[in-house]
Structure formats: structure tokens, C-alpha cells
Amino acid sequence: MARRVLLHIGTPKTATTYLQDILFRNRDVLEKHDVHYPVVHFDDHFRAALDLTRREWGGLEDEVVGEWDALAARTRSLGGTVIISNEILAGASAEQAARAVASFGDAEVHLVLTVRDLGRQIPAEWQETVKHYNTETYAEFLRIIESRQGRSADLFWRVQHLPDILERWAGDLPPEQVHLVTAPPAGARSDVLLGRLEQAFGIDDLPLAYESNRTNAGLGVAETALIRMLNERVDRSLPDIKYRYLVREVLAHRQLAERTTRTGSSRVTLPPDHRPWVDELAESWIAQLDTAGYAVTGDLADLHPAPSRLEYVDPDHADTREVLAAAVESIMALVHEGSRMIVEEEELREQLHRARAELDLQRSIPLRRRVREKAFDTLNGNAAGQKALGAYRRLRGQVARPLPGAGRH
């Protein structure tokens, strides 16, 4: 039975993908120190979280039924400390959260919540919705979440309203078992947040490797505008799995994220006229969280949105030349991906052709011979069978040997 479970529930857009990849790649190192990250595949915790929350995800939610219970059972079977991490857990209902905590039996459960100021979370979350078929302009998205009316508002506040998340999740947990890990202000070293998470997890003295090729990097103004324009024109009958691969993976996560970094594309930021209500909300949250007495790694003051050092660029009126340049690079990325898939398809066709030829050959061999050959292959595959074959050959040799006097006339 696990002595302690560290349940990291988000929030989204707080370097969760990078953290999970570090944990995934260092499973063996963690296990040597009696710390367990129970996964076989990178997305196992995501699938279990999807099962727990029953969130719609392009039909995938129907494929993951039972995976939370399986993860909980595996957690209970382990000793020491177990870490579970996925950001969509932040959106769980109070009932789902209570079920999750109870599923770990007698283990001491610690809740871990990574948090970042709304000045960065709002534009980051809009970009994420754009990568999930959303066609709302930035202005529309801002109006909806400020009014808290509409589907986008429900989805956003469900995973970003910190006091509400903690009200659903903290339950009867002592405040010292609820850990808030604050993201440092913009411009801080990239390893600061990871260091704070390691400290909250109690693994900051372990020799972890930090190489990772999994990030969910943000997009620039032109790049986000391009994806949103594509969403307005794409056939909505396109299966989600194809959109997910071609648009989110090939274009957004690979090509356009790399282009944003390479070209220094203008970043999506909070409009200056929205700062007053965001600042007021941040002040309210900081006061509530401070009063609750949770364990804080970092500083609650980090939740104050820092004034942007960048000139605001409206993504709803992105520079046409920049959008065109991003579009040309996107076309080239799709051409290269299409070429790779054509080569792969040709190789698969050739493999299929060879398999059919082999099947036709096997069908042309008389059944009696195929049975003998299969029996021979089976026997020849183990020591006992080889011994039986040897005895059979010796017997055949004796039978075939001419008897004394045979053939004399």
C-alpha cells in the first residue's frame, strides 16, 4: 500500500507537459528512491483522468472506461510515494474529486496545484481552444470569460478559477496537505518552476535527467490567427483524430510553435483594457488562498499579473504579411508530411504484396504437406520437440535400411 500519493491536478498551461515528460523519463531513477510514477505509456494518466472526469474528447472518453480504477489499483499496490499528474483533473466535480481521493485507500493524499497569473493564463487558454476547433475571436473569448456566460467561460473557469478548484478538491484534506506551486513572473529562468515542483514533491535532491522533447509551446499572434482562420474554413466532418494529428500536431505543435520561436513572432498578451478586472480578481484570490493556510512553494504575489513589457498586438487584426508567411510555411510542412506518408504507404503496400504472395504460395502447397511442415516447425522450436524429431529420424532410418539378404535373387 502506498504510504503517500501526490496528486498533481494542474492547472493547464503551467508547464505540465514538460513536468510529466521529466517524470516519465526518470521512472527508473524515481523507483530506486521508492518514488513511483505509475505509467506504461506517456498518456496513461491523461486517459485515467479523462475516465474520472468524463470530459468529452472526440470520442476518446468512450475508450477509457475503467482506466481510473485500474490506475488507483496499481497505486494501492505500490509502496512509498506515488505521483499522479494530469491537468484536466482540475476540472473534476466535487463528487469526482472525492472519489479520486478515496480510491487510494489509506494512503496519505497530498494535493498539488501549479498556478500562474491570469495575465498569462487567459491568452494561453484562448490559444488552446483555437487548437481544438474553436473559431471565436480573441475579443469574443475575452467578453465571454469576463461575463462568465457561455461554453468557453464554463471550460475556462472550471480549470482556472483557483478558489473554486480547491473547494472541489481539497475537501477534508488538512491545509498542509494542499500544495500551491506558483509559476515565477515572466522572464524568470525556465527551471525555476520545475525546481519548485520538485521541492513540493520532495524529489529535489534526486539525480534526475532534464532532457525533454515534449512541450506545449505557445504560438505567436500570426500563427494563432492562421489556425483560427483555418478552423473557420475546415470541414467540420473531418474526424477529430485527423484534425488532431494534422492541425494540432503537425501544424500547431511542430511547425508553428517552432516558427514562433525562430522568428520572434509577437506573442498573444492580455489587452490593456482588461487589466483592471483581472487585477481585481487576482487580489481577491490571493487573499482567499492566503487565509486558507495552504502550503505554498513560491510566492502568492506571483499571481499578480505583471505589466507586459511588450506592445500589445491584436490577434484579431494580425499583420496579413505575417499570416501569409506562416501559411506558406504551413503548406510546406504539410507537403513534407504528405510526402512522408506516401513513402510509408508505398512501403506498406509492398509489405502487403509480399504477404499476399506468401499466402498464395502456402495455399498452393497440399494440405498434408503444410500440416507436416507446421508440425516440424513446432517441434523444432523447443528442446523436447527436437529430441522427439531425432528419435523419429532414427526410427525412419532403421525402417528404410535394407534387411540382410534383401535384394538378392
Please provide a written account of the structure:
This protein has 409 residues and is an alpha/beta fold. The protein folds into two domains: 4-120 and 155-216 and 270-307, Rossmann fold (3-Layer(aba) Sandwich), CATH 3.40.50; 219-266 and 319-384, no CATH class. It has 16 helices and six strands. The chain has helices at 16-25, 27-32, 44-53, 67-77, 94-102, 118-130, 138-147, 151-160, 162-170, 191-201, 221-233, 240-263, 275-292, 320-364, 367-380, 383-400; strands spanning 4-8, 35-36, 81-85, 108-115, 178-182, 295-297. It has a six-stranded parallel beta sheet, with helices on both faces. Helix 11 crosses helix 14, helix 12 packs across helix 14 (320-364) and helix 15 packs across helix 16 (383-400). The longest helix is centred in the C-terminal third of the chain and has 45 residues, at 320-364. The radius of gyration is 29 Å and the shape is globular.
